[in-house]
Amino acid sequence: MVFEYTLRTERTNFYNITSKVREAIAKSGIVNGICVVYCPHTTAGITINENADPDVIHDLLSGLDKAFPDRREFLHVEGNSTAHLKASCVGASQTIIINEGRPLLGTWQGIYFCEFDGPRNRKFFVKIISS
Ligand code: ZN
After folding, report:
1. Cα(91) to centroid of ligand 1, in Å?
2. How close is the Cα of 43 to the center of ligand 1, in Å?
3. Domains of the chain by range and CATH?
4. Which of 50, 104, 105, 117 has its CA 20 to 30 A from that of 19?
5. Cα 19 to averaged position of ligand 1 atoms, centre (Å)
6. DSSP secondary structure of 88-110
7. Mean pLDDT, to the nearest integer, of 70-75?
8. How far apart, in Å, do the first and last CA atoms of the chain sit?
């Protein structure tokens, strides 16, 4: 089964969507399996990273800005190639093990929707497969 969620984003930011993924798993009733969190956009993505210190998200965004600055030689007419690069870097999905009805995450791990070209109305999907 697939669950769809929407969110309204700022220009760039990471949004902790772990509670939505937990909610989808609970609604599915599946106790053991696999969960795929998928972003159907080309300038946003999904990642797993630290959920405790918000400075980590700040530093990830800062590091991605440094790694993928806007460049004069980019050709894409929309002018947001740096957002496309960041989206490909983090990837469009994450796969998470479901164990005893819960996502098998480390204590300090959260699941994040990564916005690189907002503000926009975005969506993501949570696909749950029993095993
Ligand atoms: Zn574009």
Report:
1. 16
2. 7
3. 2-70+79-130 (2.60.120.460)
4. 117
5. 30
6. HHH-SEEEEEEETTEE---TTEE
7. 96
8. 13
Predicted pLDDT of residue 105: 98
- The rounded Å distance from CA 42 to ligand 1 centre is 7
> Within the chain, where are the H helices?
18-28, 54-67, 81-90
- What percent of the chain shows pLDDT beyond 90? 99
Tell how far the Cα of 29 is from the centroid of ligand 1, in angstroms.
Answer: 38
**Tokens 């969190």 sit on residue:** 37
**Cα 83 to averaged position of ligand 1 atoms, centre (Å):** 8
What mean pLDDT is reported for the chain? 97
Average confidence (pLDDT) over 19-46:
98
pLDDT band, residue 108 (cuts 50/70/90) = very high
Pull the structure tokens for residue 73. 């030689």
How many other C-beta atoms can be found within 10 angstroms of the C-beta atom of residue 125? 16
Phi, psi of 21, deg, nearest 5 = -65, -45
Matching residue, tokens 């690069």: 85
Whether the link from the prior residue into 119 is cis, omega within 30° of 0, is yes
Centre of ligand 1 to C-alpha 105, Å, is 33
